[in-house]
Structures are given as structure tokens and as C-alpha cells.
Amino acid sequence: MKLGLRIRSIALAKQLGPGLVTGAADDDPSGIATYSQAGAQFGFGLLWTMLLTYPLMAAIQLVGAHIGRVTGAGLASNMDELFPDWTVTLLVGLLFVANTINIGADLAAMGETMRLVSGWGAHWFTIGFAVVSLLLQMFIPYHRYARILKWLTLVLFAYVAVLLTVKLDWGEALKGLVWPHIDSKEAIVTIVAIFGTTISPYLFFWQSAQEVEEIQQDDGAEPLVEAPWQARREMRRMRLDTLAGMAFSNLIALAIIASTAATLHAQGTTDIQTAAQAAQALEPVAGKLAFLLFSIGIVGTGLLAVPVLAGSAAYAIGESRGWECGLEHKPWEAAGFYTVIALATLIGMGIGWSPIDPIKALFWSAVVNGIVAVPIMAAMMIVVSRHRAMGKFTASRPLLMLGWAATAVMGAAAIAMAVVR
Fold this sequence. Notes:
Layout: H1 2-15, H2 18-26, H3 29-42, H4 48-71, H5 75-79, H6 85-118, H7 122-139, H8 142-152, H9 157-165, H10 170-178, H11 185-198, H12 201-217, H13 231-265, H14 275-286, H15 288-321, H16 335-350, H17 358-385, H18 387-390, H19 397-419
Helix pairs in contact: 2-12, 2-13, 2-15, 3-11, 3-13, 3-14, 4-12, 4-13, 4-17, 4-19, 6-7, 6-14, 6-15, 6-16, 6-17, 7-15, 7-16, 9-13, 9-15, 11-17, 11-19, 12-15, 14-15, 15-16, 17-19
């Protein structure tokens, strides 16, 4: 009995990959700051956003995975079939800018968190994390690197542990989860921020590209348009992987909102600007253990998210230019691809030394992401509907409906970001 359970568990774990890593990377230090602010300012009042975003987030990520696995090419390659070159160049250029700012904010949050834990200089930790992330991407082959990223997702359980260390009003939490409540302009701004940090363009490019990498690393795998007999198994795997990965992402976000609501909001601390500030504010309210667990989560998810941010920009630019792309390649075999990764990481690291306000930069990167997401999502929905690209593996009607609903919601969020201040 135990042996059978263990075998099933191992088989299940092997099916989790691109979707799990993508979902975990969504809870990066910048996202943690947004979720912490939601809990600190509005208590349990915005927990319902996680139930709303889950089906939309899962649908659009499944569309991205679907495109990569069926066509054997990433999103940018498929977008080239729909848009003029200048349009694709503009979109991936904006993606690079937004991702680089996000990398800078994440590295700064990791460095500041380690300063709070150790008392040493934040800049040295920031440099160390940037260099480690860059070296791992450049010199560890994808099939090994993917396993490292998968194991790193476990660090996010630190936020579930934080939730278990605080006193929670379960009745109020359940009410916030199922009863939408919007009572101010500030609440609308925070909801828009939650949508922007939960449904982000870099996640689309990353998961689609990782499906292509999986094909290249499996000797028996081919794009489904060329090997339709593999479809049943692969479609089932992608659904399980993506639904589980996005559920994991939203579960962690729920834990962060609920834990900061039960502690910071309850004590009157309602203004949180960074993930490190949230960790620092937790210590006097919830104790040293909660502070340490929250800090571990920030550093761990940063190590997971920074390569996803840099890598997704590299895949997008490289595919749109027709370069050799992929983390399995050596740096000299895909020079352009790795140059983008290095530039995004190093420029992001440099933001910490610039006069740029990282909080304002992060806000504007969220605005850029929210705007760029809409045409990218629309392009994805068109691609996944076209028989010319997908053969007989076009998306099902429920997936199309949810995908277009996600696109419409992000369009509304982008408009709201422009008009609500």
C-alpha cells in the first residue's frame, strides 16, 4: 500500500514542471509586496480576488502551454505570424523594460530582507543573488536547472507556515473569500494591482517556452501537430500541471493576504511598500518565527522569479529575432539569448544604485505589464483558435471562453490603471 502510494506520488511529481514553476514565480517579492499591502490595508476584504483570478489565470497560462506544446514554438514565434515585425518588436521591448524593472525590485527586496536578517549590507546580497542567478542560468543545463526551480517552489510553503503561527479569525477570512467588498478608490487601485501582478506577460512567455524546452529534452517527444498520437497524454499532463501550479500560486497569495490581515491590519499597520517592509513589520506583531519564515519566502521566491523574468524576456526577444534560444544551450551556442538574460539581470541589479525610486519604478512596470498583456493575450487567443497554427488541436470552447474573459478583465484593468489614481 505504502509502495503504491509512493509510486503514484513520484509519477504525479514528474508531471508537474513548467506550470508549477510558473505559478510559483508569480509570487515573486514584488507580488508579495502587493499581496501584503492588500492584507495590511483592507484586512480580509480582498481575499475574494484570488478566487476570481484563479480560473482566468489558469486559462490563459494553459493557452500559452497549449501553443508551445502543439506548435513546438514559443509565443513570440507564433506572434510573428499575426503581427508586423515592428509591433512584435515593440511588445517584446516593453516586456524587456517591465521585466528588468521587476528584476531590480526583486533583487533589492531580497538584499534588504537579508540585511534585516543578518545586519550586513543589502547591496552585497543584491550583487550576490544577481550573480548566482546569472551563473545558474548560463552554466547549468536546462534539464538540471528545471529540477532546481521545481525544488525551489517548496520555499513558498513558508507563507503557509506563517499563517499557522498567527491567530486567525476564520469567520472573517471566509467572509472575505466569498463576499466581494469594494468601498473606496484605494480598494479599486489595489484590485487592479493584484490583477496586474497575478496575470503578467512574462509568465505567458515562460511557460510556453518551457513546453518547447520539454519537447527538445525528451527524445520521444514532438510537437503535437507532428505527433498527434501523443496528444491525449500531453494534454492531460498540461492541464494537471497548469491547474496545480496556478492553484499553488493563488494559495500562497491567499496565505500572504490572510497573514498580513490577521497581524498588520489588526494592529493598525496599513501602509506596506515592499516585501522586506512587510517582513520587518511582522516581527513585533507576530514574533521572530513569523518574521524569519516570511523572509525565507522572499529570498526563495526571488531566486525562483529572477531567472523566470530574465529568461522570459530572452525567449521573447530571441524568438522574435529568429535566434537560437534555450537554457540547454551553452552561452556561446546562443549568444544573443544569453546576452538578453545578462543585460536584464545586470541592469536590474544596477537599479539599486540609481536615483530611480524602486517603488515608483515597480508601479510603472505594473502599468506597462498591464497594457502589454492585453494585445499579447489577444494574440494568444487568436493563435490557439487557428487551425493553420494548431491543426486539429485548437482550444476547446470552455478554454476559449475563459481565455477571452481573462483578456477582457486585463483590458478593463489596464483602463482602470490609466484613469484611477
